[in-house]
Amino acid sequence: MSTEDDGPLRAVALGGGHGLQATLSALRRITTDVTAVVTVADDGGSSGRLRRELGLLPPGDLRKALAALSDDGCRLWSEVFEHRFGGNGALAGHAVGNLVLAGLLEVLGDPVAVLDHACRLLGVRGRVLPMSTMPLDMEGDVVGLDEDPTAVRTIRGQVAVASTPGRVKQVRLYSTNGRRGAPTACPEAVRAVHEADVVLLGPGSWFTSVLPHLLVPELHEALVTTSARRVVVLNLVPQPGETAGFSPEQHLDVLSQHAPELRVDSVLADVDSVPTPDRLRAAATALGARTLLDRVAAPATPGRHDPEALAASLEAALERRTDRWR
Questions:
Q1: How high is the pLDDT of residue 321?
Q2: Is the peptide bond before 203 cis (omega within 30 degrees of 0)?
Q3: What stretch of H or E contains 48?
Q4: Can you say where in the cell this protein is located (predicted)?
């Protein structure tokens, strides 16, 4: 797909983890100019260990985005990046790509330069950027953790928020500087959002991968003011923990609560995951968006999007079409 001046469509996808991988896998079927803007608040697993031990950006979500955009001719390097060590030693649980990125960060110091080098190694024609060049801390307000179901408790850490048995009401981000300062956006990520033709939010862990981008002031402002078309891709199923029991329209309500000024052009959802389409359409209309219901789930992998189907639906959304039934 090309823009009116015959250049490739400039697409920016914001998120983290498997949800961002799904979006990137679809976008690379549409255009060669894809920029991933990735969350950097992970404090669990291999990423959390490297972050705590070395004081570096958590590399896991960045690694996944690189692998999703890697060229087919670099499949081996992509597989190596995703390979995770087994056993019980010091390397157990670490992904090779996490260690490579950590080494590059220690040698080069500049996360943007590190990711640009990794893109060349993996044949990525687009770009992978962190939403901030400093690791961030997350905290969330959660209800349902005490005998009083309305009592609000604050929990800290991305993993804690993502896995809470309570119901998340709101999340916040802070810089890792000991002073709980406001997070600072990566300038290149802000520029990419401003210069994009289309910007995508979701799918993914709603409170810990999607909403965080709206909690970084410069990115928030860029998402509100960009002239790009803004597309929200909803999850196929609620995520145990942070969005358990959420309806599709509740995801949009939470989005609006965290960014009241944000307007959206299209909301894309799988038709089989929306029990009350009229309610979703009403919530989308409140954001200024058209709703596109389609079949985008991978039949063989429950809870995951099919890249080919998602790519076709994204093209339909960019053409301002509504429900597609295949």
A1: 65
A2: yes
A3: helix 45-54
A4: Cytoplasm
- In which residue ranges of the chain is pLDDT below 70? 1-6, 177-180, 321-326
What distance in Å separates the CA atoms of residue 161 and residue 141, rounded to the nearest whole number? 9
State how far the Cα of 230 lies from the Cα of 284, in Å rounded to an integer: 12
Provide the 3-class DSSP secondary structure of residue 160: helix
Chain segment 222-275, per-residue pLDDT in tens: 999 999 999 999 999 888 777 888 999 999 999 999 999 999 999 999 999 999
Structural domains of the chain sorted by starting position, each given as residue range(s) with its CATH number in brackets: 1-34+133-326 (3.40.50.10680), 40-130 (no CATH)
Residue 73: predicted pLDDT: 81
Whether the CB-CB separation of 176 and 135 falls below 8 Å is answered with yes
Measured N-to-C along each axis, helices 277-286 and 248-258 cross at an angle, to the nearest 10 degrees, of 10
CA pair distance 12, 69, nearest whole angstrom: 12
Query: Six-digit token pair at 204?
Result: 């993914």
pTM, 2 dp: 0.93
> Distance between CA 111 and CA 134 in Å, rounded?
9
Residues 6+ apart with CB under 8 A from 197: 3, 9, 10, 11, 228, 229
* Cα separation of the two ends of the chain: 21
Quick one: which of 30, 34, 229, 228 has its CA closest to 128?
34
Return all residues near 157 (Cβ < 8 A) that are at least 6 apart.
43, 44, 137, 138, 139
- Note the pLDDT of residue 177: 60
